Amino acid sequence: MKRKQFFRTMGLAGLALTSVKILQACSTEDDSASSGSNAGSGSSSSGGNSSATTDSCTVSPSETAGPFPTKNPSSLVATNIVSDRTGVPLTITITVNSCAVLADAIVDIWHCDKDGYYSEYGGTQMQSVNYTTVHFLRGRQTTNANGKVQFTSIFPGWYSGRATHIHVHIYDSSGTSLLITQIGFPEGDNSAVVQVNAASEYGYTKGMTGYTYNASDNIFNDDTTGSEIATLSGSVAEGFSLEHTIYVSA
What distance in Å separates the CA atoms of residue 81 and residue 141, rounded to the nearest whole number? Predict the structure, then answer.
């Protein structure tokens, strides 16, 4: 997958315009930040694992939206994004922070299913299975007073050349793009990634043979601080919970 900027019309009409609220004092432990690109008409922030700085907070790396961004995210406001997909349950909690937690930010997420396929695309060399008419594992929410959104989903599978990941696009309340980034998963001998990909009873049939680890993934391999890697807890039987904080410039 090449890292480059993808431009997509995001269809933000009809979203309520509310003020971005800065609710907590700026942390003294954070020391730099970057600004996202203006996406009032849907343009994305620049691809690649890069960040700039402002006065006091480190912004999460910006990444490509990938070849499968959501085509009309404003129509996919949902907490439960599973649709008809099956797999190990995954609760995704994302906190958006801009020196302090950021209320009323718009958060879009999307990821592949257990077999490595994306909705809204297919029938091409890039993805042979045609899912152009369905919209599973995609959703949008607005952050609450604590800067949080939460989605009910399934644990993503993987496909050739990429580690397990989730795509995220964050806007301010008026629809201006703040950041496009990706969330990686921790790895190790008994990590959730290993456990899930061995869970054939849930339909995960690939195992780890041919898997691309974070260290070799062209998105995460330069994340020397681990800032893109989420925290996971839980089990295959009970489901997993993912928590991750994304820092933006707003």
Answer: 11
Q: What is the pLDDT of residues 108-139, one digit of tens each?
A: 999 999 999 999 999 999 999 999 999 999 99
Residue 81 CA to residue 92 CA, distance in Å, equals 11
DSSP 162: -
Q: Which CA distances in Å does 214 have to 171, 172, 193, 221, 228?
A: 27, 29, 11, 6, 10
pTM to 2 decimal places: 0.80
What is the dihedral sign for C-alpha 218, 222, 226, 228? negative
Show Cβ contacts of residue 50 under 8 Å, excluding neighbours closer than 6 positions.
34, 61, 62
With beta carbons less than 8 A apart as the criterion, state whether 117 and 128 touch.
no
Gap between the Cα atoms of 22 and 36, Å rounded: 17
If one counts every other C-beta atom within 10 angstroms of the C-beta of residue 214, the result is 20
Sequence length of the chain is: 250
**Residue 47 and residue 164 in contact, taking contact as beta carbons nearer than 8 Å:** no
Please name the residues in contact with 76: beta carbons below 8 A apart, sequence gap of 6 or more. Answer: 70, 108, 135, 138, 139, 140
Q: Are 249 and 35 in contact (CB under 8 A)?
A: yes
